[in-house]
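Hi there. Long-time user, first ticket. I'm pasting a complex I've been working with (about 372 residues overall). I'd like to know whether the download I got is complete or cut off, because the file seemed smaller than I expected. Thanks.
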Amino acid sequence: MYRQLRDHIEKISPLTDQEYDLVCAQFEYRKFRKHQYLTQVGEPVKYHYFVLSGLLKLVFTTENGKQHIVSFAAEDWWESDFYAFFTKTMATMSLECIEDTEVLCLSLDGYRYLCATFHKMEHFFLEKANYGFIGAQRRIISSLTSDAKERFEQLQKQYPFLIQRIPKSLIAAYLGVSRETLSRLY
Amino acid sequence: MYRQLRDHIEKISPLTDQEYDLVCAQFEYRKFRKHQYLTQVGEPVKYHYFVLSGLLKLVFTTENGKQHIVSFAAEDWWESDFYAFFTKTMATMSLECIEDTEVLCLSLDGYRYLCATFHKMEHFFLEKANYGFIGAQRRIISSLTSDAKERFEQLQKQYPFLIQRIPKSLIAAYLGVSRETLSRLY
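Hi, the file is complete. Here it is re-exported in full:
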């Protein structure tokens, strides 16, 4: 079941059929429509999400109501408000569908069970976490050193398929520029 | 040996004496003077560093020679140019001492050996990586949503001891503001 999840995990950690059955049993399939929320600010964050299809945005909203996009998540990406998920605190970010989206949901108990039971799964999540950290660090460098044009070109180069699927207003909210500034870039 | 490293690891993963001896054997002690480089741009990044004492800065320098501080690392922190370390490519950031610094150096082979041999160590590094990612994500949110004053106050609140030890010019390079702007803040 969920061949896509198995293929994704096995790029890092090959599993036997029996192991994969136990891994798979920790995930719950859910389907959301465009504009639906997976998590909302102020509510508990029950799951770490693996995206099967569709597109999500992780959004931080400031007190004046301005939305900032912390990250996007498309097929084969993992997404959550990780601080709230791991510390069992309330969400400070919302996770919302940009397209109709199918996900596999992993609870914190499920995550802990997989890591404790299968050394291979702890290894898998460590590899993902290290590359997640590297990606976040690159974004910090980009925000410190690049102007809007350069940040847009980096996004375009890194995720060419995303640019086609995301409304311009959301790309602007990700780059931290106004819609007008973005319009001058493409 | 290196009681500090053992205490640090055992906050997450308790180890037997025998296990710790094997863990410890993967680390190499080194001492650097203020202003010395642990890694330089364009050179291989051989180690992941655990700081025993002192203070480091991880610096990204743009083509025009401007220095941006990606992170600081003090006692009990882990630091490296992680992308270069994990992918065995050349450093794009430099790691330099702000104070005389003692570190324990872990090679990529040593890191892989510890993770493969001890499920507990893979768990330890996963916990560190998850919290590293969360910290980086918070910095991204801060850069998207906060002005210089707010970013300075966040730094002051999060790491009060750092503010005392770091020259103002470096705090400005971390916050992404000019020295003059920072002077108006404290």
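A couple of notes from our side: Chain A touches chain B at residues 60, 62, 66, 68, 70, 82-83, 86, 93, 115-116, 119, 122-123, 125-126, 129-130, 132-134, 136-141, 143-145, 176 (CB under 8 Å). Residues 51 and 76 of chain A are 5 Å apart (CA to CA).
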